[in-house]
């Protein structure tokens, strides 16, 4: 499969979980992928090795999404090194939340989540928009909690992800005339370090899903690949739930 031959993709948070699956999928389909990580250098190197062993082109850069300027610089560097940017995937995110009034919801936690889940995404899109041409693709990983909380304790995380979906609708208008599409994918429960299939919420979540199971990171990556492809050229400003029916 070479749908993304000669394309350059930038993916935030590609060392583990959903982001790693996105990196591998885009690279397997021919894209030259640059991805960020913040702390798991060993896991980032393992992703690089796996992609290279399969014949793909990939580069890992340590860039904290908590520092929006650093994200912008990493995108600028990618364009300077590789000459173009075709696909941006805003995947890095954190799940920091607790019920309203809980002391864990201090201002530092609020700032960190807003910085990573919103501020870095906005900055990445602003930067990418300066470099993308016709056919450009911007895909952000929101969350099903951006549309529906469903249970207590996810207000702050869900609010940050609702912001991503809201920005996405505006960016679709900003960039549509240039032939660039902008979409958000809203995963439901996906088995990763953030939300393990055997975690505290797992049984409750599965009981509320028509498909009754957690998703796999590869099932989100396949939706990213579709939205990044030319086949999805008439889709913009939308949120695509990849959630086993949780929002149904
Ligand atoms: N798993 C789910 O059920 C689920 C459901 C809905 C939405 N999502 C969303 O999907 C995305 C990926 O989630 P996941 O489950 O794959 O998470 P994960 O297993 O916790 O992996 C997070 C990835 O993001 C990176 N990352 C975290 N903070 C970062 C930062 N400050 N700067 C740069 N990279 C950072 C991590 O890098 P390091 O390895 O270096 O730490 C890692 O590669 C997130 O936006 C999340 O909100 C997940």
From TrEMBL:
SUPFAM superfamilies: NAD(P)-binding Rossmann-fold domains
Keywords, sorted A to Z: Oxidoreductase
Gene3D superfamilies named in the record: NAD(P)-binding Rossmann-like Domain (3.40.50.720)
Source organism superkingdom: Bacteria
GO terms for MF: oxidoreductase activity
Xref: CDD domains: SDR_c (cd05233)
Keyword Oxidoreductase listed: yes
Keyword Thylakoid appears in the UniProt entry: no
Pfam families assigned: adh_short_C2
Residue intervals passing through the bilayer: none
Family (UniProt): Belongs to the short-chain dehydrogenases/reductases (SDR) family.
Protein name listed in UniProt: 3-oxoacyl-[acyl-carrier protein] reductase
